[in-house]
Task: structure prediction
Amino acid sequence: MTTRILATEFDYLKPATLEEALKILAEKENVRILAGGTDVIVKMKVAGMTCDYLMDIKGIDALDYAKLDDKGVFHIGALAKLSHLEKDPVIAERYPALKEAFHLMASISVRNMATMAGNFCNASPVADSVVPSICYNAVLTLASVRGERTVPVEKFFLAPGVTVMEKDEMLVDIALPQPEANSGDAFIKKTRVRPDIAKISVGARVIRDGEKACFCRIAMGAIAATPAYLEETSALFVGKKVTPELIAEVAAHASASIRPIDDNRTTAEYRVAIAEVLTKDALTEAWRNAGGEL
Ligand SMILES: Cc1cc2nc3c(=O)[nH]c(=O)nc-3n(C[C@H](O)[C@H](O)[C@H](O)COP(=O)(O)OP(=O)(O)OC[C@H]3O[C@@H](n4cnc5c(N)ncnc54)[C@H](O)[C@@H]3O)c2cc1C
Result:
């Protein structure tokens, strides 16, 4: 976090309940939500982001949870901190690729403040926790005074910094379905130095049916305007005997199907080349984690 002064003026609001927060979003204009603040405060300090109201939701204790429901779905509330989620035993056992993503994000001090919901709502193409969440078919619940609606994670993002959320809506819950038997997953992130933003990241999840996969989801970060679900590439992995040749074919397809850009972290050329290698590695690891042999 920078030591610059926060130069813009705004009213600071701190609702104690979700109802109060949703009423503020419905009634006031130009409200910015503050969760951990590790994106929003930085943007206000260095990128000229402004607002009339900064609404701190940290007082809404009811949103700070990570728990299983009676159908086996795991729910993560909008205020659950990355450092807590990283140590959660259910995440470690059921969603290891997500645990790995948390572990590779930023530094411990940032993870002590940052939330997973904030990582989603900041809507960066590199958002690390989004990539495995796409592989796990996560479902997001958006709330407003008008009620609640759910959105599959891969439909949440529209452009850098832009999501399907309306101005009066808030992300309240991230739901992860119970993993099926014989499923395996992997998350790989390439950075310049260890606690850095990804040059590229790849997630993969497969379900094994004997020597074939009956399900596959491959997702990537930092290769498009939003975190991406590679649907066509994923489908190539399903229904065929899994061999090193099949993995190589699917990895080549992944690399050929992305259109990344040059930026200050790396080049488009590097991203296309490394996407093939990382997809191969992620699929191999996911397949082995599902109990498959190669
Ligand atoms: C040094 C540093 C290193 C970082 N490294 C990484 C990294 O390696 N990988 C990575 O992915 N990110 C990284 N980040 C970015 C950041 O830490 C994450 O995106 C974090 O998860 C954001 O969570 P937050 O709670 O701090 O969000 P905030 O900053 O509080 O909010 C982020 C955005 O989401 C909105 N928002 C927050 N909660 C909600 C909600 N419930 N409903 C609707 N809107 C909401 C806010 O208004 C804001 O626009 C890094 C940041 C820093 C400062």
User: Anything to note?
Assistant: Residues 268-289 form the longest helix (22 residues). The domain at 183-289 is CATH 3.30.390.50 (Enolase-like; domain 1). The radius of gyration is 19 Å. The first strand starts at residue 11 and ends at 13.
